[in-house]
């Protein structure tokens, strides 16, 4: 009953009304849901297991999509250079891309929100120091910072397992200036500077509440709206950054390829006529990024009272 009541209230709220009256938001949510569902449950919905060596047949390599002459109905989107089903590879590759993207955004949020709260609430030299660090990081292109961190990580751990590789990849995306923690820090700092002068914060200070508790219990809940909107948009940015790094060879490991790795592999055979190996991973990446960006734009408008 409680869960049903909560869902009913959410559906009838202003945000719920904005969602169900926006065809673009509903279509984007549907596309994002399908992509996420297929990625999370790839081992259940994928027609083949592309990384089971016992099921691979090299004689099926470079088969075109099933509707193209020479295609096989067994492989709807064709096969790659190793005979792996493209549709199944997309589902497993999207899982890696989404995992890295979401983990990068969560880490960026933790770092950026914490530093932004401290900078905006404390002010003074602490605020100036944190903002100057942000300015320095923003002066470098985000992809170069990510490449540098990922390259150094590969050099320090040349024989690392997949977990360490993914940790380095997440760190490289989170610490990059353009799509990392800096955006959260600057956004939260501005909102915190407004909230710290409100009456409820002054009342909490008068009653002897510690600054840490004020930031955590009073200020943070009131600035989560812009943070959630930014996080939604940054998921798409993080996924594209991961795909770029993987395309350049410093991203996901070859035995756990992401969409960027699949595009990089397919690019080698693009001019030989095997277009499907790189086109379909690219379309999958575009579908995920576009749907998430559209949801982020809708959420920004839905949470902005001036646009209601």
TrEMBL record:
One of its GO terms (cellular component) is plasma membrane. One of its GO terms (biological process) is transmembrane transport. Coiled coil: none annotated. Its main location: membrane. It holds the Pfam family OppC_N. The keyword Transmembrane applies. The chain crosses the membrane at residues 24-46, 96-124, 136-157, 163-184, 219-240, 275-299. Residues 94-296 form the ABC transmembrane type-1 domain. It comes from the Bacteria. Gene3D superfamilies: MetI-like. It is found in: Cell membrane. CDD domains: TM_PBP2 (cd06261). It is a multi-pass membrane protein. Keywords: Cell membrane, Membrane, Transmembrane, Transmembrane helix, Transport. InterPro entries: BP-dependent_transpt_permease, MetI-like, MetI-like_sf, OppC_N. PANTHER family: ABC TRANSPORTER PERMEASE PROTEIN, OLIGOPEPTIDE TRANSPORT SYSTEM PERMEASE PROTEIN APPC. Belongs to the binding-protein-dependent transport system permease family. This is ABC transporter permease. It comes from Caenimonas aquaedulcis. The lineage of its organism: Bacteria, Pseudomonadati, Pseudomonadota, Betaproteobacteria, Burkholderiales.
């Amino acid at each position: 009953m409680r869960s049903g009541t909560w869902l009913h209230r959410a559906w009838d709220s202003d945000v719920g009304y904005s969602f169900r009256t926006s065809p673009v938001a509903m279509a984007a949510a549907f596309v994002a849901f399908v992509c996420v569902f297929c990625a999370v449950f790839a081992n259940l919905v994928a027609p083949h297991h592309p990384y089971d060596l016992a099921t691979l047949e090299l004689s099926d390599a470079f088969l075109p999509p099933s509707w193209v002459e020479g295609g096989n109905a067994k492989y709807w989107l064709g096969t790659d250079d190793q005979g792996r089903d493209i549709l199944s590879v997309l589902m497993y590759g999207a899982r890696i891309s989404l995992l890295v993207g979401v983990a990068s955004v969560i880490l960026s949020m933790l770092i950026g929100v914490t530093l932004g709260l401290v900078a905006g609430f404390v002010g003074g030299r602490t605020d100036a120091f944190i903002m100057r660090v942000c300015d320095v990081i923003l002066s470098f292109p985000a992809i170069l910072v990510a490449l540098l961190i990922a390259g150094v990580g590969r050099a320090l751990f040349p024989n690392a397992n997949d977990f360490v590789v993914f940790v380095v990849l997440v760190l490289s995306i989170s610490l990059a200036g353009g799509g990392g923690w800096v955006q959260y820090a600057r956004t939260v700092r501005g909102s915190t500077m407004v909230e710290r002068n409100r009456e409820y914060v002054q009342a909490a200070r008068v009653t002897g509440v510690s600054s840490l508790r004020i930031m955590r219990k009073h200020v943070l809940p009131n600035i989560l709206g812009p943070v959630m909107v930014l996080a939604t948009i940054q998921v798409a940015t993080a996924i594209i950054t991961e795909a770029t790094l993987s395309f350049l060879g410093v991203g996901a490991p070859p035995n756990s390829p992401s969409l960027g790795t699949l595009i990089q592999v397919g690019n080698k055979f693009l001019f030989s006529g095997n277009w499907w190996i790189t086109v379909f991973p690219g379309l999958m990446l575009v579908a995920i990024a576009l749907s998430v960006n559209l949801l982020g734009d809708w959420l920004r408008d839905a949470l902005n009272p001036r646009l209601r």
